[in-house]
Amino acid sequence: MMEGRLQSQEDEITLLKSSLADALRRLRVHDQLIPLLKQQLIAGVSTRQRVHGVSLQKSLSQSIKMFIRGRPITMYVPSNIQNYEDLRMEPPVEKLELDWVYGYRGRDCRANLYLLSSGEAVYFIACVVVLYHINNRTQRHYRKHTDCVRCLTIHPDKVRVASGQTAGVDKDGKPLQPYVHIWDSSTLITLQQIGLGTFERGVGSVAFSFAVSFTVILHLMFAVEFNPSDSTNIITCGKSHIYFWTLSAGSLTKKQGIFGKYKKPKFIQCFVFSLTGDVLTGDSEGNILTWGKSPGDVKTLGKGAKETFQIMRQTRAHDGSVFTLCMLQGGALLSGGGKDRKIIRWSADLAPERECEVKDFGAVRCITDVNGEEVLVGTTRNAILRGTFSDGFVAIVQGHVDEMWGLATHPSQNVFLTCGHDRQVCVWNTEEHKLDWSTTLEEYGLCADFCPNGAVVSVGLSTGRWLVLDLQTKEVVSDYTDGNEQLSVMRYSPDGSFLAVGSHDNFIYVYNVTESGRRYSRYGKCNGHSSFITHLDWSKDGKYVMSNSGDYEILYWDVAGGCKLLRNRYESKDREWASYTCVLGFHVMGVWLEGSDGTDINALCRSHSERVVAVADDFCKVHLFQYPCPKPKAPNHSYEGHGSHVTNVRFTHCDSHLLSMGGKDTCILQWEVKRGGTGDGGETLKEGKRQSNQITFYWSHAPNTTGVDLTVKCLHTSP
């Protein structure tokens, strides 16, 4: 309650400060115009008086006002628009088609990497299940999930796939129920959706039986499998337990494994079935336990005693947890370690044979057999490795491991850069769909921009520090600090002679750039915002800057004139901008939906052709609008795939692709821009009824509630 009151008071203070600043600017504009009118009256120039009077009246009438969280935002209509009311908004001709998915969810998921009979590795990240052909290096995507995918398994036929998702909420705060998709991996056609209305919080693990068509679904527990030799027997494991379930007459009964003289581990994290029918488990103590069925001891337990499941053998395997076990052809076993980051090969009688370490990629999360010798390895640093003990392992899939915000595309090459809270700066190739190189910073990066010559890139960090990296040598060629708060935007002028740095200390720092982007000297500082800088853009002539702030201001700056604030914003209505990433402005006003609060749109980007604008919203969606889109409720194409707020979007240098970046989902989606009737289509929003020249937005908060479900359910699936 107290936090709510404090937040309300902070919002009121911000609103009062913003309103006061706006009122002062209006008074200054008024004071500047009155002397001009007086001069014209004294001179008796009646014709010029009438002309000026008309233009002044037009400037007042040809303005659009919108409100965000009670804050009025005035935007002036450009001179080339004669009648704003007659403007008609259409959805863009261009559409998006998902081309590539960068990343893998290994940090907090288990048993989520399999090999299909088609030679494709199947795994997931965000709301997308990826089918990656490990030899042809091509991708296909299953995209029917409405929230983050959390678990995956394949049918014994290696064609059918089951994938389960977590619960979530839509943009209106309504709960989205979790369920499981069963689909054909060859056609990507959904065969069944099961469990809808059955689960409350999410689906954490799924398994197919080997005989009759059953699927087991559960959460909280770490692993579940049907016994391959008995489809009425199901094994589950989790916190300090292993359960042996029996399915009979539609009901499940369980028996708990008995640890006896052995120390009970905190977690049993994985298990496999040996060729002899025993169950092998890996636990948090670093041991592999061999479980077997013991016949009931009538003398001890009495008449009718039933068999029990006990530990037959304990094998010390890893320093730290055993995260995964994989049974190979011929009976050999692979185990993957957590703390020691090792992969160990064991003989059928659990004698260690070979081992290797994958220290650069995190702990071993899961292992999948390719051909008895070659394996795929998923790691906790969201990488998938391919290799053998003899030849070593190389990464075929890589990604960030924490929230991402910084995104920049190269001005002339098919390359883009990302940075985020994992302190990694990554440079990716959009043609070869791979990571070219990465480097680790001392602090986490939040924003970036390439110099127009393409030789260097600047990266803004969380402490007010910013670096300039050479794209070829990966070396830091310049290192500066402005203030002590995080930087939110870096933007070079079109000719590369200036760099503007937007900070959370409310200032924009402007630097002269020389020596092909390797040398910087402070030119000036833009002082006038009453809140932190969020976005900024340069004019095409490189003389002016437009900026947005956290309290929804739109300000204009005369950089060439000494970083002066342009008090009369009306004078900037016809200015042309080299880029358009500001989320507030006349040309992009239509991207805001009614009822939005000021944080619903995280980023936008106009294409270089100036035909479309892409929008990253807070509800996991990417939108494509016609540019300009100055009318409210502008129709657009909407695309899903991210499982978290979309933090940034950028077009490649030739507008052939759009890149979108998720926050917590650590996922980068590469979309191909299609013309005409091709593309995914997405959701096309119908044009709303025409509005007056005032739009009102109201604050609405959609809570995100996720959790766990302690249920185990066995559902019958169609054959």
UniProtKB/TrEMBL annotation:
<keyword id="KW-0206">Cytoskeleton</keyword>
<dbReference type="InterPro" id="IPR055442">
    <property type="entry name" value="Beta-prop_EML-like_2nd"/>
</dbReference>
<feature type="transmembrane region" description="Helical">
    <location>
        <begin position="113"/>
        <end position="134"/>
    </location>
</feature>
<comment type="similarity">
    <text>Belongs to the WD repeat EMAP family.</text>
</comment>
<feature type="domain" description="EML-like second beta-propeller">
    <location>
        <begin position="404"/>
        <end position="673"/>
    </location>
</feature>
<keyword id="KW-0472">Membrane</keyword>
<dbReference type="Pfam" id="PF23414">
    <property type="entry name" value="Beta-prop_EML_2"/>
</dbReference>
<dbReference type="InterPro" id="IPR055439">
    <property type="entry name" value="Beta-prop_EML_1st"/>
</dbReference>
<feature type="transmembrane region" description="Helical">
    <location>
        <begin position="203"/>
        <end position="224"/>
    </location>
</feature>
<dbReference type="GO" id="GO:0000226">
    <property type="term" value="P:microtubule cytoskeleton organization"/>
</dbReference>
<keyword id="KW-1133">Transmembrane helix</keyword>
<feature type="domain" description="EML-like first beta-propeller">
    <location>
        <begin position="138"/>
        <end position="211"/>
    </location>
</feature>
<dbReference type="InterPro" id="IPR015943">
    <property type="entry name" value="WD40/YVTN_repeat-like_dom_sf"/>
</dbReference>
<keyword id="KW-0677">Repeat</keyword>
<dbReference type="GO" id="GO:0008017">
    <property type="term" value="F:microtubule binding"/>
</dbReference>
<feature type="repeat" description="WD">
    <location>
        <begin position="526"/>
        <end position="559"/>
    </location>
</feature>
<keyword id="KW-0853">WD repeat</keyword>
<feature type="domain" description="EML-like first beta-propeller">
    <location>
        <begin position="221"/>
        <end position="387"/>
    </location>
</feature>
<keyword id="KW-0812">Transmembrane</keyword>
<feature type="repeat" description="WD">
    <location>
        <begin position="480"/>
        <end position="521"/>
    </location>
</feature>
<protein>
    <submittedName>
        <fullName>EMAP like 3</fullName>
    </submittedName>
</protein>
<dbReference type="InterPro" id="IPR050630">
    <property type="entry name" value="WD_repeat_EMAP"/>
</dbReference>
<feature type="repeat" description="WD">
    <location>
        <begin position="397"/>
        <end position="438"/>
    </location>
</feature>
<keyword id="KW-0963">Cytoplasm</keyword>
<keyword id="KW-0493">Microtubule</keyword>
<dbReference type="InterPro" id="IPR005108">
    <property type="entry name" value="HELP"/>
</dbReference>
<dbReference type="InterPro" id="IPR011047">
    <property type="entry name" value="Quinoprotein_ADH-like_sf"/>
</dbReference>
<dbReference type="GO" id="GO:0005874">
    <property type="term" value="C:microtubule"/>
</dbReference>
<dbReference type="InterPro" id="IPR001680">
    <property type="entry name" value="WD40_rpt"/>
</dbReference>
<dbReference type="Pfam" id="PF03451">
    <property type="entry name" value="HELP"/>
</dbReference>
<dbReference type="GO" id="GO:0072686">
    <property type="term" value="C:mitotic spindle"/>
</dbReference>
<dbReference type="Pfam" id="PF23409">
    <property type="entry name" value="Beta-prop_EML"/>
</dbReference>
